[in-house]
Amino acid sequence: MTRREEIVAAARSWIGTPYRHQASMKGAGTDCLGLVRGVWR
Fold it and tell me: What pLDDT digit, counting tens, does each position of 22-34 carry?
């Protein structure tokens, strides 16, 4: 799997996570920055 594919797969794993202001927990809630931080990890 290429690095690009890994990043896309990580981002897709967050699908279904609800919006929650200033949060970054997959499945529990996240905002846009939380999503970026979660995928970066």
Answer: 999 999 999 999 9
Report, in angstroms and rounded to the nearest whole number, the Rg of the chain calculated over CA atoms: 10
- Residue 13's domain spans which residues? 3-40
User: If you ran DSSP here, which 8-state letter would residue 5 be given?
Assistant: H
CB 31 within 8 A of CB 23: yes
Total number of domains in the chain: 1
pTM comes to 0.81
The C-alpha atoms of residue 4 and residue 21 are separated, in whole angstroms, by: 28
SS3 string, 26-37, reads CCCEECHHHHHH
